[in-house]
Structures are given as structure tokens and as C-alpha cells.
Specification:
There is one protein chain. The protein is α/β, with parallel strands linked by helices and about 260 residues long. It folds into 2 domains: about 190 residues, Vaccinia Virus protein VP39 (Rossmann fold), CATH 3.40.50; about 45 residues, no CATH class. The protein has 8 helices and 11 strands. The strands form 2 sheets. The protein has a 7-stranded mixed sheet, sandwiched between helices. Helix 3 packs across helix 4. The longest helix is centred in the N-terminal third of the chain and has 15 residues.
């Protein structure tokens, strides 16, 4: 499997969603509520969820009355998320929630959204710095002046200090044999999946770039986004370079 293809195949796998998301719905909802309490968006604000996956964050935001667009590279994830475009009875389209299969490295609407989100380390997967910069440019271009961008990324130094090299998880009868390692620029995770539905074990290897606070500050400021605040966990505790698991940055789009 080429480096370029790993996330396309893995993010379209049902085992990816079972491993990461099925047990985290309550945590995701609580995080979004805390984030909204902090941001205090005006009613009916327009919001972009970039790297939305199956739409769990988008659904929560839309349930609060905001107009939400979710985009994701995974066609399977978007196909799943589109069921939420209808009301709870599946009889009529919702006016404030939409999903599109889209590569965040490519432009998507301009000067349109009041808020943009990239959550649960849905970044850092591309092969080159230019591709990551393109993704930030897409989000910056999509925001209105004074719009806010929230990116939720792993805290590199915390992850280095707490790296669990080998782990086995058994979820609903599926075994995930997980092996983690790192080099100077990336974290890697090989996941070997064993399930009764599979004729043989399947392997996927993830990689995510070691972007530090300064790296994001540079990428964001180059696209006219200035960091306003930083948090270190999903309870919105203060960011610490080594002692907190997350790096959640809030950046504001300056006037041209």
C-alpha cells in the first residue's frame, strides 16, 4: 500500500469506525457542548466540519440550530452521514445539515462560514508540507473575516511520553492487534484486524505528522489566521506542552 493510499482505504473501512468512534459518542457530544459554551456562536451561524467522518460532530452542531456542512475524503463515511440530512423520521430533508465528499486540500466555498472545525486529529496525514498548507488554505478561504477555526490535534510531546508500543483490543468480537512506533517526524500505528467476517487478518498502518504548536502557528498565520487560545483536553483545560493530551487551537481570520 502506498503512503498516499493508506488513509483512503482505512477511513473507508467499517473496522476503522468500530475501533475509534462507536464508544466515544458521549465524549464527543460533551466536548462540542463545552466548545459552544466557550465560542458562544450567534444563532444560525454557518459552520464547516472539515474531515467530518460519519458526521457525529456535525449532527450535534446542527441539533443546536446552526447551519452545518460536513466534508470528508471518505466516500463511505459521507454515504453513511447523508442519512442525517433527513429529519428523524426520514421523511423530509433538514435545511441546516449537508454533507459532501470532498478533499480538504482543494478549495471549498469562499467567505462563507462563521466557524470551521477540524476535530479528533483529522489532519497530519498527507505526504508533503504543501498538502497540509493547502488544507489550511481551504479552511481559511472558506471562513468569513473574523471567523474562527478550531483544530483539535494530538499533543506531540505528551504522545511521545505516553506511547504504548503494543496493545490488543477486542471490540464486539473483533480483535485489533495494535503496534505503535515513531521517528523524528511521524507517529506510526499498525493495526492487525481479526474478525469472523474476514478470511484472513487485515492490516492497516496509520501515520500522523508531529506538528507542534509553532508549526501550526506558522501554517495558520501564513493563511491569515491568528491563534487566539489553546486548550489541552476535551474539558477545555489549559494547554501544556507536555502534560496535556490534546492541542486544541482557536484561530481567528484577520481582515485582508
Amino acid at each position: 500500500m502506498t503512503e498516499q493510499a493508506w488513509y483512503k482505504d482505512w477511513f473507508n473501512s467499517p473496522f476503522y469506525h468500530k475501533l475509534y468512534f462507536e464508544r466515544d459518542e458521549k465524549e464527543a457530544a460533551a466536548f462540542i457542548i463545552r466548545l459552544l459554551d466557550y465560542l458562544k456562536p450567534a444563532p444560525h451561524s454557518f459552520m464547516l466540519d472539515a474531515g467530518c467522518g460519519r458526521g457525529r460532530h456535525s449532527r450535534i452542531l446542527a441539533s443546536k440550530g446552526f447551519f452545518v456542512t460536513g466534508i470528508d475524503l471518505s466516500s463511505d463515511s459521507i454515504a453513511f452521514a447523508k442519512q442525517w440530512e433527513d429529519d428523524c423520521f426520514g421523511t423530509a430533508p433538514r435545511e441546516n445539515l449537508e454533507f459532501f465528499q470532498h478533499d480538504m486540500r482543494l478549495p471549498f466555498r469562499v467567505n462563507y462560514y462563521h466557524y470551521a472545525f477540524n476535530l479528533f486529529t483529522s489532519f497530519g496525514y498527507f505526504n508533503t508540507a504543501r498538502e497540509h498548507e493547502d488544507a489550511i488554505r481551504t479552511i481559511a478561504s472558506a471562513l468569513k473575516t473574523n471567523g474562527l477555526f478550531v483544530i483539535d490535534y494530538l499533543n506531540v510531546h505528551y504522545a511521545e511520553d505516553h506511547l504504548v508500543h503494543n496493545e490488543v483490543k477486542i471490540l464486539n468480537g473483533t480483535t485489533y492487534d495494535i503496534h505503535r512506533w515513531q521517528d523524528d517526524s511521524h507517529f506510526f500505528k499498525k493495526i492487525i484486524i481479526k474478525d469472523a467476517s474476514l478470511s484472513r487478518p487485515v492490516e492497516h498502518t496509520e501515520q500522523v505528522a508531529k506538528f507542534l504548536f509553532g508549526d501550526f502557528n506558522d501554517m495558520l498565520s501564513f493563511q491569515g489566521l491568528q491563534v487566539q487560545d489553546a486548550f489541552g483536553d476535551y474539558e477545555l483545560g489549559n494547554y501544556h506542552v507536555r502534560n496535556k493530551p490534546r492541542m486544541i487551537l482557536v484561530a481567528k481570520k484577520s481582515a485582508p
